[in-house]
Amino acid sequence: MPKPLILGISGASGLIYAVRALKYLLEADYHIELVASKAAYLVWQAEQNIRMPPDPDEQEQFWRQQAAVENGGKLNCHRWGNVGANVASGSFRTLGMLVIPCSMSTVAKIAAGLSSDLLERAADVQIKEGGKLVLVPRETPLSLIHLRNLTSLAEVGVKIVPAIPAWYHNPQTIEDLVDFVVARALERLDIDCIPFQRWQG
Fold first, then answer.
1. What is the pLDDT of residues 155-191, one digit of tens each?
2. What pLDDT shows up at residue 2?
3. Domains and CATH numbers, the chain
4. What contacts 24+ positions apart, CB below 8 Å, involve 194-200?
5. How many helices (DSSP H) and strands (DSSP E) are in the chain?
6. Which residues pair with 97 in a beta bridge?
7. Where are the alpha helices (DSSP H) in 28-173?
8. How many CB atoms lie within 10 A of CB 68?
9. Torsions phi, psi of 23, nearest 5?
């Protein structure tokens, strides 16, 4: 049975990054264990005027609707405070974890080894188990504190993929710009399921 991928969604602005990542992963038939932080609920309400349901079963339908993928893949959603979930244990085998978008608050807590919710605990497990952890921070400008926290994480093997798109692939839509970032982040997990124009030289 293929190992699942943990998809963490924090309260950073830019939830379109999470939606596009989920879309391509489900279409490619991946098994996703999804954890949205408490702040992510608030951001959805503020940016999209959409209420994310707290119940995990209702969340699955919510995320599939957002990603426009009714079938395909496997999606298991978790309550943000359920620190007893499978993804909170080092014995639960995974492909790794992607946190997209990743707030600077989440970066700071992971860098400090704090586990105040399931997303942070799952990330901490990836680090302690030597698993793959990829963060897509979305913040500007970056303070010295932000940079030091990101450096601390990079020093222990966490991959940092800032939400900074390129233009050499001739993007025509917002989705083209978002997909470039998502593709580059997933590549750090050895996942190649998003077609985009690579640099040809």
1. 999 999 999 999 988 899 999 999 999 999 999 999 9
2. 80
3. 5-187 (3.40.50.1950)
4. 194/24, 196/169, 197/168, 197/169, 197/170, 198/169, 199/168, 199/169
5. 7, 6
6. 6, 133
7. 38-48, 56-67, 104-111, 118-128, 144-155
8. 11
9. -55, -50
Among 154, 100, 91, CA closest to 125: 91
Contact 52, 93 (CB under 8 A): no
Residues 6+ apart with CB under 8 A from 167: none
User: Strand ranges (DSSP E) for the chain?
Assistant: 5-9, 31-36, 74-78, 96-102, 133-137, 159-160
CA distances from 59 to 104, 114, 199 (A): 25, 25, 37
Looking at residue 190, its amino acid is: D
Give the end-to-end CA distance of the chain in Å, rounded to a whole number: 39
For residue 165, cis peptide bond before it (omega within 30 degrees of 0): no
The total number of residues shown for the chain amounts to 201
Question: The pTM is what?
Answer: 0.95
Closest CA to 198 of 190, 188, 179: 179
